[in-house]
Amino acid sequence: MNPIIRFDQVSVAVREKTILSNISFALFPGEKTVLCGKSGSGKSSVLRAFIGLHAVAGGVYFQQMQLTPASVHTIRSATAYIGQEPILGAETVREALLLPFQFKIHRNQRPPDARLGEVLNRLHLTVDILKRKCSRISGGEKQRIALARGLLLGKSLYLLDEITSALDAESKQAVFDVFSDPQLTVLSVAHDTEWLARCDRILELDAGRLVRERTYGNA
Ligand SMILES: Nc1ncnc2c1ncn2[C@@H]1O[C@H](COP(=O)(O)OP(=O)(O)OP(=O)(O)O)[C@@H](O)[C@H]1O
């Protein structure tokens, strides 16, 4: 089986400062992997490197395809990247959810309202949020709306940056339930021990280096 994500000796430098150093790992279909480590250790940079937001030295691969200026669009289209403060790109939540379906490639997949409600409920949100302004919803709500958009598009690869840190217990459980789906592959950043316990693998970073790989409970 080929990995969905592979980093082969990846380094990233921003303005001559090395922020990732020689990172190698692979993520296989259906796996849930979490990056942990101190603040500033490079966790979010790993996610950003995968979607081409950093210039990288070394190889970043999606399936067998290397990340290059020519492939970056394909990689982004296949991935649901949920950053700490997602930009939803629309005025209302309904518009944000339907935004990708305006484009030709997804036009005939436009979900009916019932489907929007179903996905929102799965994430412990109600349909009332559809008419709210994106500028007036919380960071945790924005992340769940970005997640809902990924689910509506049928994406199977999720890059999640601290998506449970701002959530109450019920919303967090809803997110856990969504990602208990064995079809979904997840590369996440988290500190939350409950999230770590649900992941197959924990990659620990320290000062931009991958220093340890373990499963929960195995120190
Ligand atoms: N665009 C950038 N320009 C300059 N420095 C950057 C940039 N992006 C990241 N860095 C630096 O790279 C290092 C790693 O940042 P990163 O956001 O990946 O850390 P993190 O482990 O995710 O931190 P946190 O847990 O606080 O979110 C930090 O020192 C950060 O200041």
UniProtKB/TrEMBL annotation:
Keywords: ATP-binding, Nucleotide-binding. SUPFAM superfamilies: P-loop containing nucleoside triphosphate hydrolases (SSF52540). The keyword ATP-binding applies. GO terms for molecular function: ATP binding; ATP hydrolysis activity; ATPase-coupled transmembrane transporter activity. The keyword ATP-binding applies. PROSITE patterns: ABC_TRANSPORTER_1, ABC_TRANSPORTER_2. Residues 5-219 form the ABC transporter domain. It holds the Pfam family ABC_tran. This is ABC transporter related protein. It comes from Methylotuvimicrobium alcaliphilum (strain DSM 19304 / NCIMB 14124 / VKM B-2133 / 20Z) (Methylomicrobium alcaliphilum).
